[in-house]
Amino acid sequence: MVNAGDMNGSGNLMDFLDEPFPDVGTYEDFHTIDWLREKSRDTDRHRKITSKSKESIWEFIKSLLDAWSGWVVMLLIGLLAGTLAGVIDLAVDWMTDLKEGVCLSAFWYSHEQCCWTSNETTFDDRDKCPQWQKWSELLVSQSEGASAYILNYFLYIMWALCFAFLAVSLVRVFAPYACGSGIPEIKTILSGFIIRGYLGKWTLLIKTVTLVLVVSSGLSLGKEGPLVHVACCCGNFFSSLFSKYSKNEGKRREVLSAAAAAGVSVAFGAPIGGVLFSLEEVSYYFPLKTLWRSFFAALVAAFTLRSINPFGNSRLVLFYVEYHTPWYMAELFPFILLGVFGGLWGTLFIRCNIAWCRRRKTTRLGKYPVLEVIVITAITAIIAYPNPYTRRSTSELISELFNDCGALESSQLCDYINDPNMTRPVDDIPDRPAGPGVYTAMWQLALALVFKIVITIFTFGMKIPSGLFIPSMAVGAMAGRMVGIGVEQLAYHHHDWIVFRNWCRPGADCVTPGLYAMVGAAACLGGVTRMTVSLVVIMFELTGGLEYIVPLMAAAVTSKWVADAFGKEGIYEAHIHLNGYPFLDVKDEFTHRTLATDVMRPRRGEAPLSVLTQDSMTVEDVETLIKETDYNGFPVVVSKDSERLIGFAQRRELILAIKNARQRQDGVVSNSIVYFTEDPPELPPNSPHPLKLRRILNLSPFTVTDHTPMETVVDIFRKLGLRQCLVTRSGRLLGIITKKDVLRHMAQMANQDPESIMFN
After folding, report:
1. What span, in angstroms and rounded, lies between the C-alpha atoms of 545 and 482?
2. What CATH number corresponds to the domain at position 161?
3. Same domain for 256 and 365?
4. Do 607 and 739 have their domain in common?
5. One domain, residues 397 and 434
6. Cα–Cα nearest to 161, from 373, 391, 365
7. Which domain-ending residue is among 542, 577, 612?
8. 519 lies in which domain range?
C-alpha cells in the first residue's frame, strides 16, 4: 500500500516547520511513484512561479529560465548522447579490427582507415595495404599457409576472450546494472517504478566502456538497445541538475522518454524513428510537450553524430543503401513469407531465451556469470572464425547483405557470370546467372544463419551489455538475402513463367536481393520486439529506402500477426515479467468478469486492514504499527468502529514526520496524541504536546466501491498511474487494492504464477 493523490498543497508538512523537511515526497527503492501526486505538485510549483513572476523583473527572469530549462536539458542530452555514440562507433571499429591485425603507421587506425591513408592501395585490393599487417605477418612474417591461419585463429579467440572477460569483470565490480539491454528496465522505470542507481553516473560510464568491449569481442549482440540505456543515463544526469526535474519523478520521466528517442536516433541514425520508438515501445506517459522535446533531442543527437562522422561516409549509419530497381506486386508473396519467418523466429527466440534465462535465475548457473560469458565467447569465436560471414562484425555483415551488386562490388555475393556483350550503364546491371562464389556464399550464409539463431538465444541476457536489434536484423537479413537470390535466379532462368512474364523480361534488372535482406531484417526485428510503425520508419531512415515502405509494412505486420498468434508478449515484456517488475502494459486487455471485492485485501480469513484513526492514536501506537507491518501506507479513518474514510498517509512520510517532530518540537513524546484533524480539541494542561499531521494526509485518495468491475479498476490503474485505490461501501472502508494485487490477479486469470510479481 502506498500514497496516492496530491499533497493537499505544497506548503509546510507540519504546522511547527517553516519548510518541508528533507526527503519528503521521495520514494523508496523498488517502489512505484504516484503519478497523480507528482502532477499535482508540479501544478502547484508552476502556479507559484507564475504568481511570483509578476512581483519583480528578477522573478520574471527566473520564470523564463524555468520555462526554458526543458529545452536546455534536451540540448545537453542530444549533445552527450551523440558524442558517446560517435566515440563508441569509432572504438568498436578499431577494436574489432584489432583481433585480426594492427596498423603499423598508426596503431589507433582501423583496417579501413589505415588503408585510406596509404598511397600504395589499389582499388582492386583496397583491403590490402603494406601498413596493415595481420598478426601472423607481424609475428612470424607469414600471411598465407596453415601456421599463419592457426596463429591468426588463436589470437582472434584470445582477443575475444580478453575483451569479454574485461567487460564482465567491470560490470560485476563497478556497475551491476550495466548488464543486459536496459530496455525492459527503462520501460518499467518510465511506467513509474523506482530503480535507484540504474541510471546513475557509474552505470553510464561502465556501460559505455563495456559496450565497446563486448561488441568488439564478436559476441552475437548489438549496441543499439544499450545505447537507449546510455542516453537515458545522460537524461537522468542532466535532469538532476534542474530542481524542476530532480524533485519531481513524473517530470523526470518526461525527460527520460525524450532521452530514449535520442538513444534510438544515434543508434540507427533515425531521428523520426527514435521519437516513434519512444512513443510506441517504451513510454508510459507521453504528452504532446514531450513529443516536441523528444523530436528536438533526437535532432540534436543525430546532428552531433553526423558531425563526428564515425563511418567516414557522411551518413549516420553503416548500412545506408540505394537501390535502382522498383519492386513489383508479385514480390509481395516472398515478402509476406519473410514476414511469416520473422514471426516464427521471434516466437522461437522469446520462448527459448526466456526458458534459458529462467534456468539461469533458478539454478547454480546464475552464480557463475563470468564463467558463462567466457564459455559463450569461446564457443562463439571458435565457430565464427572459419566462416567469413560470422567472423566480421554483425553491422558489416548486414551492410554487405543489404548492398546491391554494382559493377565495382568484390563480394562473393556478387560473383555472377557476366555477359561479355553487356553495354549497359553501371547502375542498371541486368539479372545474371549465379557464379560459383554466389553458391559458396549461400552455403556459408545458411550455416551462419543456423549459428546466429542458436548462439543469440544463449547470449542475450548474460551479465554484459547486450542489444538484440542487430542480431535479429542479421538473422532476417541472411534469410532474406538467400530468398532474394533464389527469386532472382528463378526469374532469370524462368522469365517466361506467367508470374515473371509481365515485369521481368530477358536482360532486365528485375529482382534486388538486397531489398529482400532489408525486408527480412525488418520482419525478424518485428517478430522479436513486436514493433510496427516505429520499425518501418527506422528501417527506411536506416537504409534510405523510402520507395520500399509497402514491402516493409507488409513484412512487419505479417511478422506481428504470426508472432501474436503464439503469444502477445514481445521480448522486452517477457523479460519484465521474468524479473517480476510491476509493469501494467497498456496493450494488455482484461476481459474477465471479476469485481473489486474479489481482489481487494484483506480477504476472508485474513487479519483486518491496518488503519490509523484521526484522533485516538499515540505516537507510540503509530510507531508500533509501522514497525510491525511492511505496508507503504495506511488509510486514516474516523474510528475503528465506524471506519469512515478520512484520507491516506504514506509510511515514509509518517516516519519522517515523527522523526523530525522528536528532534525539533519540544513536548512530543511517545504518549503524545497524533491528530489528523484540522482543529484538535483543547487538551488538559498536563497532557503531552499533540502531534498534528494533517499536512501529510492525502485527503482525496482514489476510491472505488466493492462492486466496481475489475475491468474498470485495471483501466483506472493503467490510465491514471495509481499505486493503490481504496475500496469502500457507503463511505465505509472495506479494503485496499494495490498495483501488485492488480498484476497478480491478471496473472492468475491468465493461468500464470501470481507470485512472479515481486514488487509493488
Report:
1. 20
2. 1.10.3080.10
3. no
4. yes
5. yes
6. 373
7. 577
8. 333-416+427-577
Segments of the chain with pLDDT less than 70:
1-25, 117-127, 318, 406-410, 419-431, 502-509, 758-760
Based on the fold, state whether residues 607 and 710 are members of the same structural domain.
yes
Q: Indicate yes or no: pTM above 0.70.
A: yes
Helix (H, G, I), strand (E, B) or coil at 673: strand
**How buried is 125 (Cβ within 10 angstroms: 0-12 exposed, 13-18 middle, 19+ buried)?**
exposed
DSSP 266-325: HHHT-HHHHHHHIIIII-S---HHHHHHHHHHHHHHHHHHHHH-TTSSSSSSTT-----S
Answer whether residue 453 is part of any domain.
yes
N residues, the chain: 760
- Three cell numbers written together for 46: 508552476
Chain position carrying cell 528532534: 663
Q: What is the pLDDT of residue 476?
A: 96
Residue 88 pLDDT: 94
In a domain, 588, yes or no: no
Answer whether residue 5 is part of any domain: no
SS3 state of residue 623: helix
Smallest CA-to-CA distance from 701 within 683, 682, 726, 719 is with: 726
Based on the domain organization, do 472 and 530 belong to the same domain?
A: yes
Hey, is 729 helix, strand or coil? Answer: strand
Phi, psi of 185 (to 5 degrees): -70, -40
Max CA pair span of the chain: 114
Q: How many C-beta atoms surround the C-beta of residue 309 within 10 A?
A: 14
d(C-alpha 157, C-alpha 381), whole Å: 5
Among residues 576, 523, 83, 599, which one has the least CA distance to residue 338?
523
> C-alpha cell of 120?
600504395
Shared domain for 358 and 478, answered yes or no, is yes
What pLDDT does residue 13 have? 34
DSSP structure string for 135-196: HHHHHHS-SSSHHHHHHHHHHHHHHHHHHHHHHHHHHHHH-GGG-B-SHHHHHHHHTTB--T
Neighbour-count burial of 546, counting CB atoms closer than 10 A to its CB (0-12 exposed, 13-18 middle, 19+ buried):
exposed
Chain Cα centroid distance, residue 344: 22
**Cβ atoms 437, 412 nearer than 8 A:** yes
**394 and 520 together in one domain:** yes
Axis-axis angle for helices 249-268, 57-98 (nearest 10):
40
- Say if residues 430 and 422 touch (Cβ distance below 8 Å): yes
The answer to whether 680 and 617 have CB atoms below 8 angstroms apart is no
Q: How far is CA 13 from CA 26, 287, 623, 674, in A?
A: 13, 30, 18, 14
**Is 587 inside any structural domain?**
no
